[in-house]
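pinging the channel bc i need a second pair of eyes. not urgent but kinda urgent?? the chain im working w is below, pasted from the shared doc
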Amino acid sequence: MLRRLFIVVAVLLLSVSALAQESFVTEDDLRTIIQDYVSEDTPGMVIVVEDYGEIYAAAGGAANVDTSEPLQTDDYFRIGSMTKPMLAATVLSLVEDGELSLDDPLADYVPGDIVAKIANAEAATVREALQMTSGITDYLNTDAFFDTVEDDPTFYWTAETTLEFAYGLPADFAPGTDYEYSNSNYNLLHIAIETVTGQPLADVMEARVFSPAGMDTCYLETQATFAQNIVRGYEDNGDGTYFDMTEVNDGVGMGDGGVVCTAPDLVKFLPALVNGDIIGGEMLAEMLTPVDDGEGGQYGLGISYEDDPDDGLMIFHGGATNGFEGMMMQLVDEELTVVVLTNMVDNDNVTPALDDAITLAFGDY
């Protein structure tokens, strides 16, 4: 069954009791971790660690299971909802420049014919959309979107056409009164950014996120670049075979999950964010002011957040889309960032592999 999953990963309970004084990471050890989860004839995995300013990368498994082409560390992946903190940073950059305000209604920046058809879109603020407290229901909450994808897997979606599946649906709650993860928020923000700037979101994100962070391989997928450059992405059929989802368009290129990137460039994002290369300290503080997600975690403006008494501040986000899944995390106090990318959706190995990589970095692997 075709489906699209955008995940915010629950807080990882990492047992790190001592500060790392030197890097224990080696690429051979990263390869050993990967070999625990993939083989040469299964979809693969890339792990990249930035530790003390050094980047370590390893890959294993197949970029193409039909040809057994091995996965490489510099291969391109769809990153799904790991796009959301990048979209949030784009919004906050525009706030810095006075082109948006966090506490203005979304309706100030989104065409009225869309606002009128989506419950809460008139009252919810930009901040509430970023933080998933708008109450605007997720366009993925019904089967209708996925049925449409199955009926026409080559249809090219826009932010506006995805939101049609939220038209007429009731709000989840009044704005600002609760938390509910909803991709509709980020496609509304996609539209808001393009309305304010008069430019395609792809160009705005390049100028305000990818270029300042040195993420040279990263881009928002567009109709012109659809399914180009990237490795093949799969779904497990459950019988030792895999369904190739690479050219199934389940809404790629949207603000809620449309970025393509290599792992060595993706690992640059969280350090660049925290170090002030993308937004300044005031906006970063706004981004890292969280609300409870109702499941034991916290969510800021487009970023999952945990301030652990032992491990310090952890910021992270997971993502999954057609054929791909992964996660990025930074232990801010340790200046340690880890990215795990896989070319198979519904991959239960992402979180364990990330945990293994962090354990390795602290010399306990």
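so Residues 183-197 form the longest helix (15 residues). and The CA atoms of residues 44 and 61 lie 4 Å apart. — does that match what u expected or am i reading it wrong
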